[in-house]
Write a structure and sequence with these properties.
Length: 439
């Protein structure tokens, strides 16, 4: 059974190469097709991953969950998502992304339906932990696909555009979840996104493709003439599990640096995604729908800047760390503004949320691209998964930590903890200032 499943997931076979005229005609079309399908597919993944936080307060009130109960659900999900991203990343490097990503979206849709039908805390904790695990099947196949269809010299710009999927999915889920809960009940914050995900998994299965060679096209390096001909064979050689995990990740000091930085970047990012709506409701007088809008402005705030900073990082020879550092500094002052903005000025909080979104998403995107820059394209999923694992550990730390600080002390103390994390991120990013893609 396991062997049959493994064979079904295995990468698509190479087929005879098409004529030069066909290559020139089809390559741009397939590149757009891969970018489009991974973009829309990952946007949909967000709808069935981040739909808990916008309605967590309402779920807590309906089912008598404490703030720490909510924090535990957020924390366990972050842990399993991190593990899933790493384990599934290693699997995705040796799988057909079309099947891998579609199956993951199907499984997370089913878990969302099960969550909505349950009223038990332990069942909810278990289901959302499983959801975190299968959500790890989303990013790695996207990284694998884009790494095979776009060259190193255009990754910053390409991934910047693709990364908008985070913002659109993350922004829409706040509105979809909160409006579904407000009008139909909290369960529909999971039923509605689940239905959308079922449609999405069918779309991915029929739209996404594997490598260029699987559709009769040459590798991207050949198409773009990015390296000498004698290097082409080695560049396309498949890696063993040991090479993927040990050589390309565990013994790679650059991957470790970007992973540790990602830990603190994710504390910053998810503090407002996981707790922003609740914080505004409890301290600034927001209601369920305006709390959902806080997620929208946070996510949509990063769209333009992500595109710009991805392009800038390409123009500065791939110095992703330098650009990320310049983005993190303004975030520190935005959190200070949130801390000292008194209740009754909710619009100021929305502006500050948008500013944080404006500057946090370029580093989120660039740290993932940096992992691609400093490893083989055959290990993209594994490297991205490892960096993502540390990001999820950061989300876990804030999910549980901010709940404890807000409950036992105050929300002000929780904000101070985020400020400290921001300063640590700035310090670590300084070490990546001059790093450029190798090769």
């Amino acid at each position: 059974m396991f062997q049959a499943l493994r064979r079904w997931f295995s990468p698509a076979q190479t087929i005879p190469q098409k004529t030069q005229a066909e290559i020139e005609e089809l390559y741009p079309k397939y590149r757009f097709r891969v970018l489009e399908s991974t973009f829309l597919g990952y946007t949909t993944y967000y709808l069935v991953r981040n739909n808990f936080s916008p309605v967590s307060k309402e779920i807590g009130e309906a089912l008598s969950y404490s703030r720490q109960d909510i924090g535990d659900i957020l924390a366990i999900t972050a842990i399993t998502y991190g593990l899933g991203k790493f384990l599934m990343g290693a699997m995705s490097d040796r799988s057909d992304p079309r099947k891998f990503m579609a199956v993951g979206l199907f499984l997370t849709a089913i878990l969302n339906f099960a969550f909505g039908f349950s009223n038990s805390y332990w069942v909810h904790l278990s289901l959302w932990a499983l959801n975190g695990l299968v959500q790890g099947m989303g990013w790695p196949p996207c990284g694998r696909s884009l790494g095979h269809w776009y060259s190193v010299s255009e990754r910053g710009t390409t991934f910047a555009f693709w990364n908008i999927a985070h913002n659109i999915g993350g922004g829409l889920v706040g509105v979809i979840a909160s409006y579904s809960a407000a009008n139909l009940g909290w369960q529909y914050a999971f039923f509605v996104p689940g239905c959308i995900a079922l449609i999405g998994c069918v779309y991915l299965y029929y739209r996404l493709v594997d490598t260029p060679q699987s559709v009769g096209l040459p590798p991207i390096e050949v198409y773009k003439n990015d390296f000498p001909p004698e290097e082409k064979e080695d560049h396309e050689a498949e890696l063993s599990t040991k090479q993927l995990i040990i050589e390309q990740v565990f013994l790679n000091k650059y991957i470790w640096l970007f992973a540790i930085i990602n830990f603190f970047v994710y504390i910053i990012r998810y503090s407002l995604i996981d707790w922003g709506p609740t914080y505004l409701k409890e301290t600034k007088g927001a209601n369920i729908t305006s709390g959902g809008y806080s997620t929208l402005v946070l996510e949509f705030g990063g769209i333009g800047s992500t595109l710009l900073m991805g392009w800038v990082s390409d123009k500065f020879d791939g110095r992703r760390g330098m650009v990320s550092l310049l983005c993190i500094i303004p975030i520190f002052f935005a959190f200070l503004g949130i801390l000292y903005n008194p209740p009754g000025n909710i619009w100021i909080d929305f502006v500050l949320f948008a500013i944080i979104g404006l500057f946090i998403y370029p580093p989120v995107m660039l740290l993932g691209v940096a992992g691609l820059d400093f490893t083989s394209k055959k290990a993209v999923g594994t490297a991205a998964g490892f960096i993502g694992l540390f990001g999820s550990l950061g989300r876990t730390a804030q999910g549980k930590g901010l709940a404890v600080l807000a409950t036992n002390y105050s929300w002000d103390v929780a904000i101070y903890a985020i400020l400290v994390s921001t300063l640590v991120a700035i310090f670590l990013l300084a070490f990546s200032w001059n790093l450029k893609p190798r090769g």
